[in-house]
C-alpha cells in the first residue's frame, strides 16, 4: 500500500497554489492525482520565475520552483475544456474518479457541463471540492480571489507588522496554503462520509473563510472585548515577554510562558528585582505594561551574545531560539533528521535530482510516499487516455490534430 489514500483517484482541475497544494497533499497520501492542464500553456505557475530548474547544461528550463512546490505525485494530461470533445473526455475520466478538485471562478465550469450540479446526477458518489477566493455564496462570490486580497480583507495584515509601521502581508501566501489544507481535510472527511453512505457532496472552500478562521486568538480577543487589536510586530498579544530581542551580535526569540519561567529568566538575566515588581509580577500585569518591560529587557539582552542567551536560557528551561535564514533552515540537524528536504529525479534536469520540501505528515502505518516528481506539461497524456479510456495511438493522434489535447 503506497499510502492511506491508495485507490482514490483525483480529477485535478486546479492551478496556481491553493488547489495544487491541496491535491499534492492527497497525492503524498497515496491518491492518484490526474492534473488537467491547458494545451501549450499549462498551469500558470510553470512560468512564475525565476528561479527555474536547470537542465544538464546549466540552462533554465520551463519548470519553475513555484510550480515544483505544489505538484509532486501527479500525472499531467493536456485537455482543452472549451471543446465539446474535451468536455466529453473529461466527463468520461471523471466517471473513474472519486474526487474532483477545482478552483475556477464561480459559475465558470457550468458552461462546460463540469460544475457540481451538472455532474452529481450521473456521479452521486463524487466528492467535488471547489476552492475560490470568497466562496460560492455572498456578495463577493463572483469576484476573482487572490492570496494578497484575502490577507487584507481577512484581517491578518492588520495585526502583522511593526508597531507604528504599515501592515505587512505574511511572507508566504498563507491564505492560499491554509485554503489548500482545509480543502484536503474536507476531502478526507467527505471520503469517509462516502465510504459510510455512498454519497458524495459539494465542498465549498474559500481563501477568505480560511483566513478569517486563522485569526484564532486575535479574532476571539476582539469578539470578547470589542477592542480592535493593532500592530504588535513580533510580540504576542496575550503573553509577555514573548517576542524577538536584540543581542550583542544578532536577534533571538524569547518565549516566557508563565510567571515561574519569568522568575528564572530574570534571575539568569541578572535583573531578579523585575519579577517582584508589581508592574511585571504576573503575566496580566506584564501585558498591561509590555512597552516598559520590553524596553528594559532589550537593554539587558544587548549586553550578551546570542549564543550566551540561547545556551543559558535553555539550561534554565526557558524557551528561546534563533531566527534562521533559509540556508540555515535546511542545514539544521533537526530539519534534516525529519526529512523535510527531499530529492527526486526530474526529466527537466536530465534525470538528475531536484530538491523539494517534504511532507510534514508522519504516520507509523500509512506513511506518505514520493512516487512522482512534478510532471512536465502533458507528460502522461498518452498513458492516461489509454489507461482510463482505452484510446489507441490513432485516436490520440486525431485528438492532437484537432487541438483537443
Order of helices and strands: EHEEEHEHEHEHHEHHEEHHHHEHHEEHH
- CATH H-level superfamily title of the largest domain: Crotonobetainyl-coa:carnitine coa-transferase, domain 1
Proportion in β-strands: 15-25%
Q: Would you tell me the overall average pLDDT?
A: 96
CATH class call of the largest domain: Alpha Beta
Gross morphology is elongated
Flag low-confidence runs.
Answer: none
Q: How much helix is in the residues? A: 25-40%
How many domains make up the 3D coordinates? Answer: 2
Query: CATH topology of the largest domain, anyone?
Result: Rossmann fold
Q: Tell me how many strands there are.
A: 13
Q: Based on the structure given, which CATH architecture of the largest domain is correct?
A: 3-Layer(aba) Sandwich
Termini separation comes to 32 Å
Provide the structure class: alpha/beta
The biggest sheet, with number of strands, parallel, antiparallel or mixed sense and barrel status, is: 6 strands, parallel
Number of helical segments with 4 or more residues: 16
- What integer value in Å does the Rg equal? 25 Å
Placed side by side, the strands forming the largest sheet appear as 5-2-1-6-7-8
Explain how this protein is built:
The chain is of the alpha/beta class. It has two domains: 274 residues, Rossmann fold (3-Layer(aba) Sandwich); 83 residues, formyl-coa transferase, domain 3 (2-Layer Sandwich), CATH 3.30.1540. 36% of the residues lie in helices and 16% in strands. A six-stranded parallel beta sheet has the order 5-2-1-6-7-8, sandwiched between helices. Strand 9 and strand 10 form a beta hairpin. Helix 1 packs across helix 6 and helix 6 packs across helix 7. The longest helix has 24 residues. The mean pLDDT is 96.
